[in-house]
Amino acid sequence: MKYNLFVSGVQEELKIERRAVKNLIIENPLLKDYFNVFLFEDLPAKGKSSKKTYTDEVHKSNVYIGIFGNKYGNIGDDMISATEREFREAQKGNKEILIFIKENNDKIRDAHVRKLITEIRGPEKGYIYKRFNDLQELKNVVYEGLIAFLREKGIIGRDAFDQRICSKVKLSHIDEKKIRWFLRVSREKRNFPLSLTASVKDVLTHLNLLREGGLTNAAILLFGRDPHKFFLQAEVKCIQFPGTEVEKPFMSYHIYDGNLFEQVDLAVSFVLGAIRLPVIQQEHTAQAKRPHEIPAFAVQEAIVNAVAHRDYETTAGVQVMVFLDRVEIWNSGSLPPNLKISDLKQPHASYPNNPLIASTLYLANYIQRAGSGTLEMVKQCKAQGLPEPDFVSIRNDEFRVILPRDVFTKEALTKIGLNERQIKAVKYVKEKGRITNREYRQLNNISDEGARRDLDILLKKKIFKNQGGGRSLSYII
User: So what's the pLDDT on residue 288?
Assistant: First the structure.
């Protein structure tokens, strides 16, 4: 079944936004299978002579999307604009109403628009509304609203995303070289039974990536020539920051949107390249013996898990952020209901959100034995003298892995009894390379006596050491 969707909004002001919504739906491989979109401006000129045309289309629609900007629009004989008239018709017809409000400054809007927004925001109405600042944000919130609608109808959720058929793709969209590579690796690492000369169709069928003659979403994500063409959300953003907070300018920024194997490989290389040298030079430790502050296994496992288990039905991709003191990997989605955060640091069963993707990554030796990967991450980090990785679930729709880069994290420093001033000074030295007594006083607004006392403790705990002497005395890690 296809649902009829009506896009409303002042044409003069929101022409580009209206068109962007339609293009999103007709170009998205999931949405285009479930929605027919009506835009009034797409009608032939002779069909635009009366308001009956668009009111009839509202009546025929199942979903009404209202885009509100600053302008109210021309007022008709009934003393309301076409946009409000369409909204009222959708109300009377009990349509699914999704409202998207452009920007946040309501003061500059026409009075009638402000009144409509006030009504929509009223808790008794129960309308879904979101704000947006640019076209990409608009497409993101529209996509998420329509996915939520399909979930409520029971259309999404019956099959995992990776198991659904990807419409209008053929075997020619599959990269045969990647299939050959997969056969070599999986036969060597996991005793995959098919021969090196097996046909593309036979390999995909064996992996359950071909269903009822159609390629699944997983097939395109794993082996497609250009998966980003079909799934704009399938990408990994990698950012390196100069300090310990999100700030511009970035030291490095890349988006990887190839097949999932390439996304993982390139994202891992990005991180390992960024953390090649330790933040804290360990005394009497040969550099060659410690090429990365974080074990490469932990980095790869965190990124693979994010790609394998993320929610592909949201527009949020995977984000990898390298800070001076840590690496964070974020992905959309949540832990399965039968897993808790604490379970990740002990033996546990595996409940993949995308079972076809996970099983194929396992066969390619990208994923470890079920439930063992996070345990090994913890083990290797502790063996290297690092704090344990931190696993965090945010609002049950975002999952984060935090990998500390050195032993001088805020949590570790707090445990050994440092106060906030001293912790701030350690952060300062990690970013600036050194600190003087004067800089310590200015940083913490403290007296000379207090600064000397704090610095003496840092020296006794062997966190700081002296550099130079006299007026040129400074402290380094």
Answer: 34
Reading the block at residue 370, the tokens are 């079920």
Instruction: Give the gyration radius of the chain's Cα atoms.
Output: 28
Beta-ladder partners of 101:
68, 131
Per DSSP, the three-state class of 250 is: coil
The answer to whether the bond into 44 is cis (omega within 30° of 0) is no
Q: Contact at 8 Å (CB) between 177 and 372?
A: no
Whole-prediction pTM: 0.61
Q: What is the CATH number of domain 160-407?
A: 3.30.565.60
Torsion of CA 225, 228, 229, 232, to 10 degrees: 170
Task: For domain 410-476, give the fold.
Answer: Arc Repressor Mutant, subunit A (1.10.10)
pLDDT digits (tens, 9 = 90+) for 208-255: 898 878 999 999 999 999 999 999 899 999 999 988 888 889 999 999
Question: Among candidates 301, 284, 285, 305, which has minimal Cα distance to 293?
Answer: 285
- How many residues are present in the chain? 477
**CB contact at 8 A, 370 and 358:** no
